[in-house]
Amino acid sequence: MWQTPILKTSLTASVLTLVILLSGCAAPEDQSVSSDQITPTGASTSASAALTQVKGKVTDAAGNPIVAAGVAVTKSSTGVPEILVLSNEKGEYVWELPAGEFTLTAHLDGYADESKDIALKEGQTLELNFQLEKQP
Length: 136
Description:
Immunoglobulin-like; 4-stranded mixed beta sheet
């Protein structure tokens, strides 16, 4: 009998903490995010940094946009851990990166991941679309 109230209190606190954390992640419904507003954390937008830009869409096999698909970047030469941006309501994503070689991977639970290797030159803009296949 002593364990039941403690377990229930602990579970309630855990659920409440999760709800609070998730509520802080969601944008208000009346605000939309356009692809030009998506810049990964830590990326500079100054012209002096001479960044490249990779942008595109994540769609399903029928060409419908996939919302909130993660597009992760791994620096090919160093194997730096992946960093992630999410596609917006139109399935669009934008990355600003330095010149170099990278692997981009699109992912959403329920779909097969798709990865593409790219080489970016300084100041280049590259359009890179992903088409994810639904998993059975």
